[in-house]
Amino acid sequence: MRNASWLRVCLVPFVSCVFSVSFPSRASAQPTDAIGVRAQGMGGAFTAVADDATASWWNPAGMAGGAYFNALLESGNHREPPTDRSAGDLPAAQRAETRSFAVAFPALALSYYRLQISEIQPQTSIAAAAGVRQEGGATEVRLRSIVITQVGASVGQSLGSHLVIASTLKLVHAGAASELQAAGTASLDGASGLDVSGETQPGLDIGAMAVLGPARIGVMVRNVKQPEFGTGADALTLSRHARVGAAVSTGTRGVIGAATVAVDADLTTTATVFGDERRLAAGGELWTTGRTFGIRGGVNVNTIDDRRTALSAGLSVALKKGLYADGEVTGGTDFGRRGWSAGLRVTF
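Request: output the structure for the sequence above.
Response:
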């Protein structure tokens, strides 16, 4: 009982701060849960897990419950919906291509992440108002490419034996480019080929992890400083984004064990080409004896506007002791999240 009371005293002020600073914000065009093969395989329910090197993205406070050494190299591609151009029109579409490299110890992580987000945004109402028409009666669409590259250093501090507070200080190089194009010729490849000129700004993420027996509660606030890049029509703001998660695991002393179930919920709204999003995710992970194989699955649902659902499944295979090949696939009715990611992970 004393431990629980102490935990409330330490965690409640942090959570109150998260709510006060993050609810007014509205993140813009950022797939904040697009990083991490294990995280994707669990449907994005990873804020209270975050025990590998992607903790530097998901929740740096999770490093304290991870391995003594963890390094990973990952790549992913989550792509657009199938398109039917028979009607001379093109629906909204998005593709997120990710590259990751991160190294983590229990109290320190160094990371590199690159995201390229290619978008097609229908401009029907704008074109109609301006009297713009294309061959076959199709309106124009807007192609947009966003490139975000960040290098970060994460550090954490334990407050007693139940709570960790951590942060990721990062340099972010980002920018956006867009152009109008006839719907009949537009493609995501065309969007990704736009010339993006970026600039560099400092950034800050903060996270907390509370552990009480087999249960973990994680809170993450990304882009605390809300860096801004560019001007005019191609201006890009990485808005504050907050997420909370809970997990229960068979591990001891806050270390993720052979069986884990987790849930995540966004506290902020994200604007995308498909409409506003606020995600709710649930997932699980199960390892065989000796950690030779790991399987995971999850579901991720948009809880506002168009309620799209993504279903994920993942697998890890030990190539040798401490070396794993990780992979995941995502499907479902949330077309913008369909795709795959894969990586190699070293952990001791």
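Residues 269 and 278 are 5 Å apart (CA to CA).
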